[in-house]
Amino acid sequence: MNAENPFIPYLATLLTTADLTPDTKLLTVELDDPDVRDRFDYQPGQFAILSAFGVGEAPFCLVSVSYRGRQLEFAVRRIGTVTNALHDLEPGVKVGVRGPFGNYFPLEQYKGSNIIIIGGGIGMAPLRPVVNFILDHRADYGDLLIINGARTPQDLVFAPEFDTWAQAPGSRLELTVDRGDAGWTGREALVPDVVKELKPSAENAIAITCGPPIMIRFTLIRLKELGFTDSQIATTLEMKMKCGLGKCARCNVGDTYICQDGPVFTLEQISKFIEQF
Amino acid sequence: MQEGLTQQIREKARELLTSAAVDCIIGYERASDGLTARPLFAYEPNDVDKLIFDQTCTHNLSRFLVDKRDSTVAIVAKPCDSRAVNLLLAEKQIQRERVYVIGVVCPGIVEATWGQINDRLQARCQLCREHTPPMYDFLVGEPTAEEPPVEPYHDVAELEAKSVAERQSFWAEQFARCIRCYACRQACPGCYCTECFVEQLDPQWVGIRVAPAENEFWHIIRAFHLAGRCIACNECERACPVNIPLSLLNRKLEKDVLELFAFRSGLSAEALLPLATFKKEERLGMGE
Amino acid sequence: MIEGYQPKIIGFLCNWCGYAGADLAGTSRITYPANIRVIRVPCSGRVDPLLVIKSFQQGADGVLVAGCHPGECHYVEGNYYTRRRFALLHPFLEYLGIEKQRFRVEWVSASEGKKFSQLVSSFTEELAKLGPRREA
Amino acid sequence: MTQIISRQDLLSWLERLIGERIVIAPAQSNGLVLFQRVSRAEDIVLDFDNTVLSPKESFLPLSEVLFTVAKENGDIKLMPATVAEEMVLFGLHPCDAKGMAVIDQPLLAAPADDLYQQHRARTTLIGLACSQAGPECFCTSMGTAPDDPSNLDILLTRVNDSYIVQATTEKGKALLPSDLIAQSEVTAPPPPSPQAVPTEGIVEVMRGAFESPYWSRLADRCLHCNLCAYVCPTCYCFDIRDYVDEGGIERVRSWESCQSPGFTRLAGGYDPRPTKGARLRQRFYHKLSYFPEHFGHLGCVGCGRCVRYCPVNIDIREIINDIQKLGAQSEC
C-alpha cells in the first residue's frame, strides 16, 4: 500500500477481461510501476480496492495467487455503479489499485488438515486462490473436497479450472445448481443439502465457506451437525468499505473492523461479535 | 402549561391504550432541559403520565406515521400537523383506520431552543388562522372562531420585490452555510421517499460534494418536491442547525400554488394534489 | 453584449411536436443558431425539474422546453402537467436568482419550423444581452 | 509568574497574524457563531458559549479533493492535493481541542491520512478557556476540562479584561508576540463546573446492554438526519466518490454519518444495519464502547452540541444515565 498517502491508488493497466458468468468478469490488471509490482505481495483471502476513475472505488478480493505471476486478478460482478464502470472498461485503460488490505486464510496453520471448500455463486471467487494455493502445495494438505454451487450452470465461476481441480491428486469437485438447464447433467440441489449428502468428516478437517448470507446460514447448520466446531469453520465477510485502512469506521461490525481485523474470520470469532452479522 | 389540554390528552390516551385500540400513542413529553418538549411514544398505560401539551410542543408528529404505518397508532395533532395527516392520506401513504387523531385546539407554539424559551409565538403561529384542526377523531380544547386574516406572505413578497442580483447574493449566502445534514428532509412529514434524489448515484444528480452549486441544487429541488404539498409547519427550518430560511422557499411555492391553482394543502384527505391534476382550459402564462 | 460570448441553451424538445418542428426547420433550409443543444424527450411532460436544474448547474445559460400545443399532445394530457409544473417552477427560479428570461416553455407544433427558428434566435439574443449565468 | 496579554493587544496580535497567514476564528454569521476565515480582528467573537459546528472542519473539511486525475495524451497522472498555507485556528474551547486528539488517533494511525496530517501540521491551535459552562456541557466527565491546555499550542484564559497566556508547545511558543506579553502575578479564576455524567465503567455496561430494546425505543423519535454527527467534534466518518467536470476527474471525500441510509448498504441492496434502532445504537456504541476499546478513551468530549441541536432531543448524557441504571438493574 502507498504508505506516504494511502488514499492515492497505484496506477495499473487493465490487461484483459474475460466473462466468468453472464454478470461476472475476470479482470486481469498489471501495476504500472515495476518496483511497486514487486513489492505488491499478498496472501489468499486479502483484498484490494479498485478505482474506476470518474466513478469511484470499491473493494474486491484478489482471486489470483501472488507467486504465480505479477498480474492481479479480480472477479467483478456487475451490481453497482463502480462495478458497472469496471465492466465497461476496455483493455489497455488505466485503473487504480489500493492495497493489499485485510488478513488472509491461515493456510500455514491448516497444513496437514483435510480441507473442505464450500462456495456459492460469486462466493467461490475469494476461495479460488485458496484452492490454487493448496493444489500448488498439494503434499502439505490432506484430502481436498470442493463444493461449488450456483443458481444456474452459467453462474458457476471459474468453470475452465474445474477439470484441473477435479483431476488433482486427493481432491474431489462436487458441482451443484439450483436450477439446471438443457445441457446440465449434474446435481440440482442447494449447497447445504450437498454438504448433508456428502457428509465430509470433521476429523482433522477445516471448512472454508463463502456465499450469499442465506447459503452460509444453512451450510453452518449442516457443518455443525457433522461435528465441525466453530474454530474449524472459516469464512470471508463482505461489508461496505470506503478506506480499507480502519479510518472511515464504516465496515465495523461491533468493535471489529472487517477491513483490518478481517475479512477472514473463524466462526468462533464471528460468534463473539457483539452485533449479529 | 395548558393543564386542561394535558389532562384530556392523558385520559384519552389511557383509554385507547387500556382498550388496546392502538399499539402506541405518539405525543409529547418534557425534554431533558426541563423546559421544552420532545416526541414521546407511549406503549403502555403507565407511560401516559409523561404526556404533556403546552406551547413548546412544536414537532409535527405526523412525521412518524409513515415509519409506524404497519401498526395502529394515535397521534396528538395541532391544526397544521393534522393537515399533514390529510396530505399522507391523500397520497395513500397511511391507512385512515390505522391512525387515531387526537386533535388539539392550538394555543400557538412559542419560539424555543434547547434550554431556552421566549414567549414570542413562532412565525407560523403568528400567521395561523385555523386554531381548530381540520380533521380529528377526538378534539381536545374548545373550538375557537376564525380570526381575521392577516397578510401571510409579507416576507416572501419582500424578497420577490428585490432585484435579481440581490436575490442571487441572498440565497448564495444562505446556501453557503448548508452542511447537507438533511435534518430539513428528515423532519418533514412530506419527505418519505425510500431513496432521495440527492443520495442517488445512478444518475448522480448532486453527489456527495458540499459546495455552493450542489447546495443550491439540493434546496431548489427539495422545496419544489413539496410544492402544493407542504403545510408550512416550519419544522424543517427549526431543525436546521445553521438557520437557513427554508420557510421562505416553502411558502413562496405555497403562495404561487394558491394564486395559480387556488389550492391549499392538507385541507382534505381526498384532495387531488395540484401537480397531479390539471384543467384543460386554464391559462397559466406558459407559452402563451 | 460581451464580445464573443455565445450563450449555451439546452433544449428539451418533445418528440412529436418540438423536435419535429426543429426537423422541419432543418429540412426546409430555415437556419437557427447553433447555441441550442437539443435533447429529445418523448413528451414535454417527461421533463423533470431535476433535468432543468441539472442543466443550469452544468453550465447552461438558458433552458428551453418545447412541447405540443395544449390539446394536441400525442399522449393527450402530457403537456397539461408540463404547463402546471413549469408555471410553478418558472417564478420559483426567478425568486432564487435565475432570471426568468433564462427558462422558456413554448408550444411548437410539428408544422411550425419557422416559429421554432425564430424562437431559438430570439432566445439566443436575449441570453446574449443577459450575459453568462456564471462567470466562466 | 504568569504571562498575560490585554484584550487590545490580543486583537492587534490577531491582526498581525491575519496579515501573515489564514486565521480561522469564531465570527458572527446570521445570528450564529461559526468558525470562519476572518479578515479583520474585530470580526472575531471572544465571548460565546460554543460555536454551532466544531472546528474539525478545518482539518477534515465538509468536502475535500483527495487527488485529481489529469489525462495527458492518453496517459494518466494522479496529483494528490496538498495543504500549503500556514493557518491559525483561534478561539476553540478545550473540548474541541480534545476532539482533535480523538480524531487524530484513527486518522493519524499508520498509515496516516496524509491530507489530514498536513492540515494538522500547518495549523497552530490557540484555545480559549471557557469562562462559563453552557447548560449542555459535560466535558469534565469526558477526560477534559474548561481550562485544559493539553491538545492545544496556546491556551488563553480570561481574567478581567486581559488573558493569561500558556504556550504548551514549541509551535505555540514560536507564535507568541513577546512584545505584547507582560508578566503578572494574577492567577486564573476558578474554572466553571459543567454538569457531571456517570461515565465510570460505561464501556462494560454498554457491552451488556447491546440487545436491550432501549435502543429501538429511543430510535422511535430519532429523525435519522446527520446533524448530531456533523456538529460533533469527534465524528470522523467520511464517504469517497469521484467527480467529473471539464477540469478532469476529482476524487472527493465528504462527511458521512452512520445514520444515513446508504452508510452500510452494499451494492445490490443488502444492508446489515437496516433498522433505525440498529443505526442509532451504532452511534452510541462507537462513542462509548468501540472507540474506547480500540483507542483507550471515550469517543465523546462532552461539548454538548448534539444535545443542544438535536431536533428531537436525543441527549447522550441522559442515555449514559439510562444505560448505567440498566446495567445496575441487570446486576442485582
What report would you give on this structure?
- The complex is a heterotetramer of chains A (277), B (288), C (136) and D (332).
- Chain A is an alpha/beta fold and 277 residues long.
- Chain A folds into two domains: 10-101, Translation factors (Elongation Factor Tu (Ef-tu), domain 3); 114-236, Nucleotide-binding domain of ferredoxin-NADP reductase (FNR) module (Rossmann fold).
- Chain A is 19% helix and 31% strand.
- Chain A has seven helices and 15 strands.
- Chain A has helices at 34-39, 81-87, 128-136, 162-167, 191-198, 213-225, 267-271, and strands spanning 10-21, 24-31, 47-52, 56-61, 72-77, 94-101, 114-120, 144-150, 171-177, 187-188, 205-210, 233-236, 252-253, 256-257, 264-266.
- Chain A has a seven-stranded mixed sheet with strand order 10-9-8-7-11-12-15.
- In chain A, α5 (191-198) packs parallel to α6 (213-225).
- Chain A starts with 9 loop residues before the first strand and ends in a 6-residue tail after the last helix.
- Chain B is α/β, with parallel strands linked by helices.
- Chain B contains nine helices and seven strands, in the order αβββαβββαβαααααα.
- In chain B, the strands form two sheets. A five-stranded mixed sheet of chain B has the order 2-1-3-4-7. A two-stranded antiparallel sheet of chain B has the order 5-6.
- In chain B, β5 (110-113) and β6 (116-121) form a beta hairpin.
- The radius of gyration of chain B is 20 Å and the shape is globular.
- With 332 residues, chain D is of the alpha+beta class.
- Chain D is 31% helix and 23% strand.
- In chain D, strands 3-2-6-7-8-9-1-10 form an eight-stranded mixed sheet.
- In chain D, α5 (202-208) crosses α10 (316-331) and α6 (214-220) packs across α8.
- The longest helix of chain D is centred in the C-terminal third of the chain and has 20 residues, at 276-295.
- The radius of gyration of chain D is 22 Å and the shape is globular.
- Chain D starts with a strand and ends with a helix.
- At the A-D interface, β4, α2 and β13 of A face β4, β5, β11, β12 and α8 of D.
